[in-house]
């Protein structure tokens, strides 16, 4: 019985998958910590200048924000390298670990309460991530960046990319001016949709660099530089709207919602472009989906825990804010998903 199980383990966890796993775990730690450091920097910059949430860029002069940005860049580089070794279905869901790190540090440093159900949500994220890791498919053998380009030019992925860009433009030019300050899904929707395209391009660049370092130069192909341009454009867009979301809404709310949407769109894009599930049995696919649903359940609990406040005083404060909003006072500051400062009584 043991001999029949050993090949399936090796098949699922190849040496490249293990490298991708280690890089993804490192990435989650740095990115999770960066959310907190950047949030501290945004709050400090907002106290002396125009907040990012209302279009200000004073955070660019705040050293603490740059520390957080550098930490995030280190995490993204590790994440970038992970995509060169392992499929997106393995790497992307491991971002749930960054949510755990972010939620715990927000509880300790930012004093954003983590309810007992939030802890349960962290456990579910770990369980779901472990399930996906153990059943992840092997990375597809790709011999040239032009092969990735051909995948990106297939009608199914072109239709997905066109749909994403249309949705992003509608959100930016129609919904953000009206609902950006009150509806968290608007900013995060832009980040998540654009992020799914950036991950596909990052994976293409990672494969190109991996092949180049192995002796097959991929830098001579224009497709490599087109993918690079797409990555730069998408990352700058993500950074801009993620800063607005972090400055406007609670960190422990932004992180899980962003993760769920970003992961969902990325896995969808990966399945369409790289056809990861074509090389797996139905049992493996169902198991991975169960792991993903478990992670979603965990992030949902982390999200809802921000509405479960401890103590009658805070509950009364939120109720008073709600009544004030209904009576026409305080604008939108009674919204529970807004920053904690806006829901406190003077």
TrEMBL record:
Nucleotide-binding in keyword set: no
One example GO MF annotation: magnesium ion transmembrane transporter activity
Biased composition (Basic and acidic residues): 336-346
Keywords from the UniProt entry: Cell membrane, Endosome, Ion transport, Magnesium, Membrane, Transmembrane, Transmembrane helix, Transport
Annotated membrane topology: Multi-pass membrane protein
Signal peptide: none
Segments passing through the bilayer: 20-37, 58-78, 84-110, 117-137, 157-177, 184-208, 220-241, 253-273
Main localization of the protein described in the UniProt heading: membrane
Annotated family: Belongs to the NIPA (TC 2.A.7) family.
Protein name: Probable magnesium transporter
């Amino acid at each position: 019985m043991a001999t029949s199980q050993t090949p399936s383990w090796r098949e699922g966890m190849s040496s490249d998958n293990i490298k991708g796993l280690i890089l993804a775990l490192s990435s989650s730690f740095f990115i999770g910590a960066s959310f907190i450091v950047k949030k501290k920097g945004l709050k400090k910059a907002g106290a002396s200048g125009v907040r990012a949430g209302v279009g200000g860029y004073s955070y660019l002069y705040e050293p603490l924000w740059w520390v957080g940005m550098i930490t995030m860049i280190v995490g993204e580089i590790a994440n970038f390298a992970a995509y060169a070794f392992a499929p997106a279905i393995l790497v992307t869901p491991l971002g749930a670990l960054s949510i755990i790190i972010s939620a715990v540090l927000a509880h300790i440093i930012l004093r954003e309460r983590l309810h007992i159900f939030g802890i349960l949500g962290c456990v579910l994220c770990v369980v779901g991530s472990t399930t996906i890791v153990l059943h992840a498919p092997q990375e597809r053998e790709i011999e040239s960046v032009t092969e990735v380009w051909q995948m990106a030019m297939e009608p199914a992925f072109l239709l997905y990319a066109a749909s994403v860009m249309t949705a992003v433009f509608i959100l930016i030019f129609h919904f953000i001016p009206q609902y950006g300050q009150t509806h968290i899904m608007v900013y995060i929707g832009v980040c998540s949709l654009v992020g799914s395209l950036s991950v596909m391009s990052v994976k293409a660049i990672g494969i190109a660099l991996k092949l180049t370092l192995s002796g097959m130069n991929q830098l001579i192909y224009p497709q490599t530089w087109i993918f690079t341009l797409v990555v730069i454009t998408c990352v700058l867009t993500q950074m801009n709207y993620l800063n607005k979301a972090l400055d406007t809404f609670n960190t422990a709310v932004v992180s899980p919602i962003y993760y769920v949407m970003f992961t969902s769109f990325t896995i969808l894009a990966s399945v369409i472009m790289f056809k990861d599930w074509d090389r797996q049995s139905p049992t493996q696919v169902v198991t991975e989906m169960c792991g993903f649903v478990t992670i979603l359940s965990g992030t949902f609990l982390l999200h809802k825990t921000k509405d479960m406040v401890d103590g009658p005083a805070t509950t009364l404060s939120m109720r008073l804010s709600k009544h004030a909003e209904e009576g026409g006072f305080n604008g939108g500051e009674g919204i529970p998903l807004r920053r904690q400062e806006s829901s406190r009584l003077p």
